[in-house]
Amino acid sequence: MEVIGGDNVVIRGPEDEGPHPAGKDEWWQESVTLIWWDLDNYVGGFHRIGHEPNQKDGPKVYLTNSLFTKDHVYRRSEFIPMQAGDQFANGFAGGNGHCRCEFVDGKARWTLNDDNVSMDLVAVDHHTPIDIWPKSGELGKDVAPEHMEVASAVTGKVTVAGKTYKVNGAAFRDHGWGIRHWEKIMVYRWVVGVFDASLSIFAMTFLSPDGTMSSFGLVNKDGKLIRAEKVDIVTYIEADGFTHRGGHLKLKLANGEELETECEILQKGTVNSHHGNTWLDTFCKMTCGDKIGVCDFEIANRPFQGTTAPVCLEKAITDNGLFPASI
C-alpha cells in the first residue's frame, strides 16, 4: 500500500499481532483494543485487554468492556490477577477467558461472555496495520511507544439483555506495547473514525508534562495511506468539564488535501480510571462531506495532573453493570 508523506511510518505485519517479550520495567504493558459500531443496528462496543506482567503484587490484567444498544449500556472495567492462560501465541485474554482476542488467518476474533451479554465478532482489516506514534520525547518514551493501528470491517453477533444483533459494521483495532507511565497521560484527544474500506481516519493530540504538545494523524483514502501534516481537534465539552457531545476534526494532509469531519454523539460515553489517570470514550456519528461513518472520540482532561475522579458527569457512565440507554 502506498504511503504519502510517511517517512517515519512503520508498517506492521502479522508477526506483531501476538504477544511481545515483556521488558523488566514495572510499568511495561501490552494491550489490544477493538472499537466498533453498526449504524444500521445501532449497536457498538469498546473492548480492551491490557497485560501488566511486572506489577509489584503480581501480574495483572486491566480489562475493559462496554456494549451499547438503543436500550442498554453495558460496562465492566476491572484490574484483576493475570491467569496462566491469559497470554498465548496468537492472542490475549482476561477474566478467566471472559474476554478473548485471537488473530487467526489474518483476522482478529474477539469474544466476550458475561451476565446478560455475549459477543463473537471478527474484524477484517481495510489496510496494512501502521505505527505513526512518536519515538522520542515524553510521549515516545513513556506511553507505550510501540503501536499498530488499523481500520477494519466487523461482522458477527452480540447479545445484550436477551436481544441478539447480527453485526455488520465498522471497527478500529489498536495494539500497543512498551513502558507506559500512566501519570504522564495528562490531556489528549484520540479520534479514530471509519466510514468504509475507502476512508478511515486516525488523529491524536497529546500534551506531555514537560509542556510539549504532540499531534499526528493518518488517513486511509482510496487505497492510499496519507499522513496528516496538521491536526486540529475541537471538543464540545459539557458543563461538567469532562464529558462531551462530540467535536470537529480538521486535517491538512501531506498530498495538499484538507479533510474536515463533524462528530455527534450516539450514546453516553464510558469513563475509566487506572493508576490515577481518568479518561472518557464516547462513540460518535462522523460526517465527512456526503459520507457517514462512526468514530470513538476519546479524551482525557488532566491539565494539572490531578488524580481526583470526576464528581459530576453529564454524558458518561462510570459504574460496572447494565444500564438503560440515554443521551
Structure explained in plain terms:
The protein is mostly beta strands and 327 residues long. The protein has a single domain, classed as AttH-like domain (AttH-like fold, Beta Barrel). The protein contains one helix and 25 strands. The protein has one helix at 137-142; strands spanning 2-4, 10-11, 28-38, 43-52, 60-68, 72-81, 87-88, 91-94, 99-104, 107-114, 117-125, 130-131, 146-160, 163-179, 187-196, 199-207, 213-221, 224-237, 244-253, 258-265, 269-274, 277-288, 291-301, 316-317, 321-324. A twelve-stranded antiparallel β-sheet has the order 7-8-9-10-11-13-14-3-4-5-6-25. An eight-stranded antiparallel β-barrel has the order 15-16-17-18-19-20-22-23. A hairpin with a 2-residue loop joins strand 22 (277-288) and strand 23. The longest helix has 6 residues, at 137-142. The protein is globular and about 50 Å long.
Global shape: globular
* SSE order, one letter for each helix or strand: EEEEEEEEEEEEHEEEEEEEEEEEEE
What is the SS-derived class? mainly beta
Distance from N terminus to C terminus (CA atoms, Å) equals 40 Å
Overall mean pLDDT stands at 93
Architecture per CATH nomenclature, i.e. the level-2 architecture: Beta Barrel
**Widest beta sheet: strand line-up:** 7-8-9-10-11-13-14-3-4-5-6-25
- Determine the strand fraction and express it as a percent band: over 45%
Low-confidence stretches: none
Annotated CATH homologous superfamily: AttH-like domain
Tally of DSSP helical segments: 1
Q: Compute the gyration radius: what is it?
A: 18 Å
User: Under the CATH scheme, which class?
Assistant: Mainly Beta
Oligomeric state of this protein = single chain
